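Regression report. Comparing outputs from two consecutive submissions.

Submission 1:
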Amino acid sequence: MTESKKTAIVTGGATGLGKAITKAFTEAGIFTIIIGRTQKKLDAAKEEFGDRCGYEQFDLTNLKAIPDLVDALEKKYGSLNILVNNAGIHLKKFALDTTDEEFQKVILTNQNVVFTLSREVAKKMVNYGSGAILNISSMAAHYGIPQVIGYTAAKSAVEGMTRALTVEWAPKGIRVNAIAPGFIYSEMSAKALNNDPERKQKVFSRTPMGRMGQPEEVASAALFLVSEAASYITGVVLPVDGGNSIGF
């Protein structure tokens, strides 16, 4: 699937799911701009992907600076055709113990940033008459998971925004979709499950495919949803979860 002469922005694209998405995009011929906060991780990604990618060290929680960032990226790289809102933070804490400050921090990064960046990039896409925005949601937006109240609130909002922005922006040629990943393999997630046999048994017993997903499997879905192959798909929240969300 070649998406030549297109430019994508992937937030948090230097690690984890974001890096897998960046890899899939660059291999498909999409020039990909990674936005991240850690210079060392950005340098490593640039070294791996070479001239197929660029990067910008930037703290997206500085909402007021996002319009200037987007202007600068367009000036430097040309048309911004694809945006993947992947960057996020977690907070594992019981709701009764979560402070207002902790809650707002998660909301700021996982929800407010998604809106502000989407709005500013969409302003550019309107001028091109086309564009694709992909939000990374979570199974936490689909059913109750303990100790992640801020994350759940933010991801539920992201899915609502996906639908609301779809109906506003579809007439302008912009598609907006989301992916809700299930239990995806990483060293951190594997270690967490191995250290909690009861949780591990629960995860696999309700996942019909009986295994964790691979980052590349989420990346393949992301590539499809932003590509011309999905030109009549918008407003969708696609679970990539081995059936976990419908498992019994």
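Submission 2:
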Amino acid sequence: MIHNRESLPETAAHATALACVEAGIEAAHPERVVRAALQFGGTTLEIGAESHDLSTYESVVVVGGGNAAAHVAAVLEDILGEALDGGIVVTDNPQPTTVVDVRPAAHPVPSQRGVESTEALLDRAASVGPETLVLAVVTGGGSACMVAPASAISLADLQATTNALLASGASIHEVNAVRKHLSENKGGQLARALAPARVSALVLSDVVGDDLDVVASGPLVADPTTYVDALDVLDSYDVTVPEPVRERLEAGAAGSIDETPGPDDPAFEGVTTHLVGTNTTALAAAREAASERGYETLVLSSRIRGEARDAALAHVAVAEEMVATGNPVTPPAVVLSGGETTVTVDGEGRGGPNQEFALAAALELPSEAVLGAVDTDGIDGNTDAAGALVDGCLVTDPGAARQALDDNDANTYLGERGALIETGPTGTNVNDLRVLVVESLD
């Protein structure tokens, strides 16, 4: 999985960190989580506690999008065989399929290809009826991949708004509150398009807390946010957006535009949702990999958030405490965390939250510690790296490292020192995974 593994350090601690990263990503892949969630025999499809007799439906189709959507579709084809009648998914990571149409998109900023692909998806959604079972695919990255600009909003408006929000330091919950109110399919609106079909959604979550209204901007669930909330995000983070965006949000806040559908909307009566893969899935597998190598383990949290540099210092503090006192777990030990940190971008360099996290940590890590930090989709920020692998000896020029952080150019600094982890698109997306290894103090 890690393309450049041979060029990375090979000490026991480094190897353990990489093994945990690989185990976590592999465990959250659709090939595993979708197969674990579904049982199919004869004409009966079971998804968790839900059961469908496929003989009672005129057709069974797949509809959805996100980073892992094509991988999910391929698994569904293999499980259901001739019982599946086709469908369409929109993704930035295409995979070969037989009957499901895989359409291209971009991530994390929407593209014209994504607009065209989403138009085709919505056309397919409009064609289903009450005798159709829709297996809906909702995965991380769906907000950017499934893009349908609202009236008077252009793709350029969405692109500028997305870039500004991603650079602002706003959380994904806040970012998606805005995106839902600039779209024709987010915030429960895809459920409206699919009604009155029976919809069973398979969700791979890439958000802290696994809030279903935030994953891919919640296309199939009720939206608890409002136009006022969206405006508050722009104002709180001083985000400058194109005039049509602010005009739409202000019109919505004034009641001139209908809100996204709430929990009482009849569109949701035929929708059930199944959370099949989460950050906890990855953390559990990483923990098992560490235990198998003889390390004590501790899962710090699956909900780490806030500025990447601040979260990094909290992890450094844990490593320092382990070295000094043996708390909260005695070395040799592995401490794991997940979640999603953010970066307020002031510079013009290249990087992502995991690379900034890793570089900020490397400045102060004790010599006994190794840290791996990756985005499980394999693409961290505006780079081709998944993240980085660092230790307490990586930074020999603190001034240059701090300058790289100031310039938001962690990618260049880490790349020059052979510390980047490169996986390419992994086929899944369950948020970030961090592995802190502290070796024995003997």
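Expected: both submissions complete independently.
Actual: both completed, but the second showed a warning that disappeared on reload.
Relevant detail on submission 2: The domain at 5-25+280-438 is CATH 3.40.1480.10 (glycerate kinase, domain 1).
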